[in-house]
Amino acid sequence: MCDNCTNMIGTQEQFDALNAVIAKYKGTRGALIPVLHEAQEIYGYLPLEVQREIAEQLEIPLAEVYGVVSFYAQFSINPKGKYRVNVCMGTACYVKGANDILDEFKHELGIDVGDCTEDGLFSLDACRCIGACGLAPVVTVNDEVFGKLTADDVEGIVEKFKALEAEA
C-alpha cells in the first residue's frame, strides 16, 4: 500500500485494481512491462502518480519506470479520449495526403498530436503503417477504419462521433 494514497489519481476501484496487478507480479523477473500494460488498461494512460506507485511497490527507481514508459510507443503519459483518433502516417498514407488529414483533425478538434480534448471525448495520435495501404490514406477511430480519405472528410468523421455522444 502506498504511503501517500490520498495523492493517488482515479477511483478507489482503480487504485485497488492497480494494487492487485502489482501484487500479482511482485517478485517476478521482468514484471515491469506487464504491470505497465495492465496499469494502462486500468487508467487509460500512465500518469506520473501511477508510475511512482509502480516504482515504489516493485522497488525499482522511478527513472527506470519512466524510461520504459517514454521509450515504448504503446505507453502513454497523456490521457486518451473516449474516441482515439489515429492518423496513419506510413508511406502510402503520407504520399496520399495523410499530413493534410492530420492537420484538419488538429484544427477540427482544437488539439495537437498526443493531446486529448478538454471534454475527454477525443484524443489524436499519428501512427506508423497500420497495414491498410490499399485504403490509403487511413484513419482509425478506436477500432473503426476510415479509408481513402481527404481532409474534407474529417469534419464528417468528428460529427459522427459527436452524434453518438448526443444519443447516449
What does this entry look like structurally?
There is one protein chain. With 168 residues, this protein is an alpha+beta fold. Helices cover 46% and strands 11% of the residues. It is built from seven helices and four strands. It has helices at 12-25, 32-43, 48-58, 62-71, 91-95, 98-109, 154-167, and strands spanning 83-88, 122-127, 139-141, 144-146. Strands 2-1-3-4 form a four-stranded mixed β-sheet, with helices on one face. Helix 1 (12-25) runs antiparallel to helix 2 and helix 2 (32-43) runs antiparallel to helix 3. The longest helix has 14 residues, at 12-25. Residues 1-6 have low confidence and may be disordered.
Briefly summarize what is shown.
The chain is built from 7 helices and 4 strands.
List its salient traits.
168 residues, 46% helix, single chain, 11% strand, alpha+beta, 7 helices
How would you summarize the topology of this molecule?
Elements: H1 12-25, H2 32-43, H3 48-58, H4 62-71, E1 83-88, H5 91-95, H6 98-109, E2 122-127, E3 139-141, E4 144-146, H7 154-167
What is the ordering of alpha helices and beta strands?
A: HHHHEHHEEEH
Biggest beta-sheet profile = 4 strands, mixed
From the N-terminal CA to the C-terminal CA, the straight-line distance is 37 Å
Report the radius of gyration as a whole number of Å.
18 Å
Instruction: Specify the structural class.
Output: alpha+beta
Number of helices: 7
Oligomer: single chain
Strand content: 5-15%
Strand arrangement in the largest pleated sheet: 2-1-3-4
* C-alpha geometry: elongated
Provide the residue-averaged pLDDT.
Answer: 92
Total strands: 4
Low-confidence stretches are: 1-6
**Helix share bin:** 40-55%
